[in-house]
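Example record

One chain of 310 residues, shown exactly as stored in the release files.
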Amino acid sequence: MTRGAQPGVAGAGARGAGVGPRKGRSFLGNLFVPVCEIDVVLNDAETRKPAEIKTEDGKVEKHFLFYDGESVSGKVNVSLKHGKRLEHQGIRIEFVGQIVTIVRRLSDLVKEYDLIVHQLATYPDVNNSIKMEVGIEDCLHIEFEYNKSKYHLKDVIVGKIYFLLVRIKIQHMELQLIKKEITGIGPSTTTETETIAKYEIMDGAPVKGESIPIRLFLAGYDPTPTMRDVNKKFSVRYFLNLVLVDEEDRRYFKQQEIILWRKAPEKLRKQRTNFHQRFESPESQASAEQPEMILLTRISSAESKSNSLM
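Predicted structure tokens for this chain:
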């Protein structure tokens, strides 16, 4: 799984640290007792903005926030304990984005300092709306429209559903925001699907000509940005899923992909443009202004009754 941010770790370590033997203590006792304390201090720690991240056990941690392209500067304090001496072969500073395996020699001293990195995005001025007609021939024709195809993480999705033909007894209608995380390559590819938002937008049977408004606030669901083929191994995609349920509990649905992106804070919007990445949406290659008629194909089985607006 994936989280909207990924932590980075700045670490300092003394390689080959040795401990001199002392009288009255065994060799193994000296071996496992640290002879010094390592502390990392950032230059702008007093003014640096913190950010929160959820751990695997659901707890919330706060760390300093850095943006893509910024420099991390500070100092490392190595304090010897009273009466101790330290032999080492140099001090190395590393910036680690993700730790897969930790290999640590018996006598190495390591200090890890957690950071959070947000990757910002910017998009062209063109942001076409999504408009499409779907339905079942001679039974149900609806037209749905979303005001944009790309939304920032605190944006509001605005749209409407217009019923052109209703000959099916619809019981209710709901809108879902679905996140799909794709990991791996080739035959080892796995996809995890999560419904992060769902709410009912209509209760009761609609009539021909009725229009149902849509308004979904993304800020309340804490989504992450859309990601495309990160290192050719990882992607995050979002879909709006419109679901209609009739009186026989048959479900009719249509998924439409949208792009989510992280907006830069106000103070960074006028700074260097190389803080940002450009992302070209696949929807930009197709016109979203010309609605097309799509046949809703019914898929039913003994265990599940559902209909996909394909």
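Notes: The helical segments are 27-31.
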